Amino acid sequence: MKKIIISPSILSANFAKLENDINSIEYAGADWVHVDVMDGHFVPNITVGPVVVKSLRKITRLFFDVHLMITNPEKYWHEFQKAGADLITFHSEIQSDKRKLIEDIKSSDIKVGMSIKPKTSVSEIEKLIPYLDLVLVMTVEPGFGGQTFMSDMIPKIEYLRKIIDRNKYKCLIEIDGGINSQTSHVCIKAGADVLVSGNYVFSAKNPAEAIKFLVL
Ligand code: DX5
Ligand code: ZN
Q1: CATH code of the domain covering residue 172
Q2: Range(s) of the domain holding residue 162
Q3: What is the per-residue pLDDT for 146?
Q4: Which of 116, 143, 175, 196 is deepest in the core (most CB within 10 A)?
């Protein structure tokens, strides 16, 4: 069986005790840390910027999975790379030159991903999949943690899995939004490689157990 990567989203962590919360998920067996960056423009919420990533880089060796929900990633991605991001995922719905952005991020020696919102179909990004390390499928409307998983996104995950396997692309499928111990299994069955989970992991009394149930 392939290894499923777990990437807890710190959006649901206690921001007054971020170091504690990150240490506790690291100890609990998380593989990555998911950092949700929102600009109040691409999505109706504002979160953190590169200074937070830079500070966190000093307290953990976990892989930093940075999800940019911002209108102009071409303007800001480099700051996140310098701050210590290992993977930068931007949204396919932006107006910028996506092919160029992919090449620019890749040439800085970190991984690059592209995300699709619930209303965006796989066919809209299909041509770019060969150049990507990861496609992030949103299973809620981006902007807030703690929302309900949209099960009608499952066929999208299955379709993406087929395309990647058929063409032998080296591209991971990440799922983000409403992931808990029930929805995780449906996503794994549909072909997910990476699961983001915010509210479920950080509201659990025992995060290690919560993480274990995501893949059991
Ligand atoms: C939503 C974010 C998600 C979110 C996941 O816009 O991209 O990463 O925080 O949180 P849960 O697991 O609570 O839906
Ligand atoms: Zn996210």
Answers
A1: 3.20.20.70
A2: 5-215
A3: 98
A4: 175
